[in-house]
Automatic annotation (TrEMBL):
Recorded superkingdom: Bacteria
Name this polypeptide is given: Uncharacterized protein
The species this protein was found in: Spartinivicinus marinus
Keywords from the named record: Signal
Signal peptide as annotated in the record: 1-19
Length: 133
């Protein structure tokens, strides 16, 4: 059983690169303008993407992101993997990703809006058939 499990894990990890698809997505949020009395606003935005049927979102390479554009303070990008599916031998793989952006307006008086635009990149690949192990 341990040998089969190792072979199954090797098959999952060593899948050919051509079976992997790279996806690029953006998410952004924009705050209201800072008021004339200095009140700042925040915003949060998120988008959830699901891998096609029979595919999973890879953890290696892990999803990556960068802040493409920002103004204000507390500009953040992050993601959460979800929709875990058991593919056998107790192995669970994520089938969805939620990408998120957060911003806080700039300090001062009537200084304008804050925003964050995040570029995300993630991969998905075919769920291997482990039924023969």
């Amino acid at each position: 059983m341990k040998k089969r499990l190792l072979i199954g894990l090797s098959a999952l990890i060593a899948m050919p690169a051509f079976s992997q698809v790279v996806v690029n997505e953006d998410v952004e949020c924009t705050t209201k303008g800072t008021s004339i009395v200095g009140k700042r606003h925040t915003c949060d935005s998120s988008e959830t993407y699901t891998a096609p049927s029979g595919h999973f979102i890879t953890k290696q390479p892990s999803p990556s992101f960068q802040i493409a554009s920002s103004n204000g303070a507390d500009n953040r990008c992050h993601y959460e993997l979800g929709g875990y599916k058991n593919i056998g031998f107790g192995i669970e793989v994520p089938t969805s990703i939620t990408i998120k952006a957060h911003a806080k307006g700039p300090g001062g008086i009537a200084t304008g809006r804050g925003w964050t635009r995040c570029n995300f990149s993630y991969n998905y690949r075919l769920i291997p058939d482990l039924s023969g192990f």
